[in-house]
Amino acid sequence: MPPARKKQRAYDPAKVRAAVTAQFGHVASAVRELTPGQLARPSGLGDWTVADLAAHVAWIADSLAAGLDRPPAAVAELPAVEWPFATASLAGKISEAARETLGGAPLPELYERAAVRLAEALDAHPGHRVLDLWIGNMTLADFMVTRTVELVVHTDDLNRAAGLEIPVERQALAACTRLLADALAVRAPGGSVEVRIPPFAVVQCIEGPRHTRGTPPNVVETDPLTWLRLATGRTRWPDALDGALVRASGERADLSALLPLMS
Question: What is the pTM (predicted TM-score) of this model?
Answer without folding.
Answer: 0.93
